[in-house]
Amino acid sequence: MYWITRMETDAVSGALYRPNQIVADEAQKIGFKTINYHYARDLFPTYEIMDFYIESWFGTVQAGDVVVLQFPDRVYNYEYLPRVIGFLRKIPNVKLIAFIHDVPTYFAKDLDISDENRVKSDFWLEQLRRFDLLIVHNDSMLKRLQHDEVNVKMVSLGLFDFPHNIPMKNKELSKKIYIVSGRPLKKINENVDLLIEIYGSDNEPAKSNISYNGFKTEEELLTQFDGGFGLVSLTGGINLADDWNFYGTLNSPFKLSFYLAAGLPVIVGKDSAQAEYVTQKNIGFAIDSFEELAEKIKHLTADEYVTMLKHVKPIQTALKNGNFTKLALLKAIHMLEVD
């Protein structure tokens, strides 16, 4: 039997919970059964209660089963994950896969990646070493984990899926740059020749080339995009949040998948994990600054933009169909079975 965890939450938008549910939903389509659990920051006040919930949720797992734990679990209890793994390891011949959404180890703005003691003692890396296989974002994350002595079999996901069947507008070349972010953004250069549309937590007065549109769900935004580009702001000169810069060199942001599933070409930082993918596929630009972006769009022709849209199309279709998730899970199972 194949199992995968799925978080139950009322959240309907954003990168914290929705990818978890998408992965579980796509896994079900290829024969996985779900283990449903609930987000609650203070769900486990004692070990006794914690173990009761763990046995309730994972008690149906049998000898020889494969269990995919979506990682991290978002329960925010450092005692919970080790006890789940410990519980499952007591079941004979169970295989454990971590489907990685984030590696919190790499979040810190002032992270010293050369600190060997950190590598050996870090909580999250220690937990990842206890799995039989990891599904990681991409090859950059794979290499970083190997460098940090996580010596476990790994499969690269590529992109997080974004299934939907929402009718969308045709896209045309424009200077519009969409920034969808739930985090506060630092000051954006108002002097660049771009039309910047911001959706998220910021809600400031409109400026000459910047409009703040408040929060909208992904479904609402999909019906509004009519051209231009989606910007993923995590690294280098386009890191508008001024943190997670190192993490942006390793991850495959859910926002990137959202823009591509919307049929938009994308903008990423030159040092991001996706820079080579974006440029090789000709689905957008990898840049260091908004000034550089303005110059690129200034010289972009309508025909060149249409070519980008054509290159986005097959990726959009794959994301809408959940292909990246299903392929990664099938690869993972195959690697475990031939072990």
Give a brief description:
The chain is an alpha/beta fold and 339 residues long.
Structure notes:
By secondary structure, this protein is of the alpha/beta class. The chain folds into two domains: 2-161 and 322-338, Glycogen Phosphorylase B (Rossmann fold, 3-Layer(aba) Sandwich); 176-321, Rossmann fold (3-Layer(aba) Sandwich), CATH 3.40.50.2000. Helix content is 35%, strand content 19%. A six-stranded parallel sheet has the order 2-1-3-4-5-6, sandwiched between helices. The radius of gyration is 21 Å and the shape is globular. The two termini are 18 Å apart. Residues 186-332 form the Glucosyltransferase 3-like C-terminal domain.
Cα(first) to Cα(last) distance is: 18 Å
Order of helices and strands: EHEHEHEHHEHEEEEHEHEHEHHH
Structural class assignment: alpha/beta
Ranges where pLDDT stays below 50 over 5 or more residues in a row are none
- Basic shape: globular
CATH architecture of the largest domain: 3-Layer(aba) Sandwich
| Side-by-side strand order of the widest sheet | 2-1-3-4-5-6
Number of extended strands: 12
Percentage of residues in helical conformation: 25-40%
Number of domains: 2
CATH class of the largest domain: Alpha Beta
What oligomeric state do the depicted chains represent? Answer: single chain
Spatial extent as radius of gyration:
21 Å
Domain Glucosyltransferase 3-like N-terminal: 1-158
Keywords: Transferase
Organism: Weissella oryzae (strain DSM 25784 / JCM 18191 / LMG 30913 / SG25)
Domain Glucosyltransferase 3-like C-terminal: 186-332
